[in-house]
Design goal:
49% of the residues lie in helices and 9% in strands. By secondary structure, the protein is α+β, with helices and mostly antiparallel strands.
């Protein structure tokens, strides 16, 4: 059996999603660090693997690659407790994965990248302010959904939670104030208490 190979950038929430799920599945993998701030995902070698030039990228077997963090989550969780089999519950998981990539990640993750990774907050302050308006709207949606729920779908921990947790729990690094989100904070602690949990800086 081939060992999975994960092309990753340690501070990335998108990469963290995959490491977290693999850790909780107990699946061994080889991790290859690529520093996106130094253009290491823009080399001809890496672009031959992922023409979009982004991490995470999962090498499933020699020459077989899968990009896009949430697509990788779906692939890895097939046939496990992290992805429901029942049709509607499964569709709800996908719903939250699409929400995360369209309404959440662009507004939560990008300010964090500018502020905490590139240290370019002043240069991007106007756009950070604009993105935070949309980011708070996404957090409001999450807060309302979690008022009477432990997890996002069917009261069970799934890849929907992993996808949304990755950048939400470090939203403060993007200038967000989570203090008023009691349901989100309760959910964050629930996610952290799951077996096999690792933090974003663990390899």
């Amino acid at each position: 059996m081939n060992t999975l190979r994960l092309y990753d950038f340690l501070p990335s929430g998108n990469g963290y999603k995959i490491r977290l799920l693999l850790a909780q599945l107990g699946v061994p993998f080889e991790r290859i660090e690529l520093d996106v701030t130094k253009g290491e995902t823009r080399t001809s070698e890496f672009l031959s693997k992922n023409p979009n030039g982004k991490i995470p990228l999962l090498e499933i077997s020699p020459g077989q690659y899968l990009a896009e963090s949430n697509a990788i989550l779906i692939y890895l969780s097939e046939g496990t407790e992290f992805l429901p089999y029942e049709r509607f519950a499964r569709a709800q998981v996908f719903q939250w994965l699409f929400f995360e990539q369209n309404s959440h990640e662009p507004y939560i993750a990008t300010p964090r990248f500018w502020l905490s990774i590139l240290k370019q907050g002043e240069e991007h302050q106007q756009e950070i302010n604009q993105r935070q308006q949309m980011g708070y709207k996404a957090l409001d949606v999450m807060e309302n959904h979690l008022q009477n729920r432990d997890f996002f779908v069917n009261q069970r921990y799934s890849i929907a939670d992993i996808a949304l947790f990755a950048y939400t729990h470090v939203a403060n690094e993007g200038g967000y104030d989570l203090s008023r989100y009691s349901a989100i904070n309760r959910w964050i602690e629930q996610v952290k208490s799951q077996p096999g949990h690792i933090n974003i800086h663990e390899v």
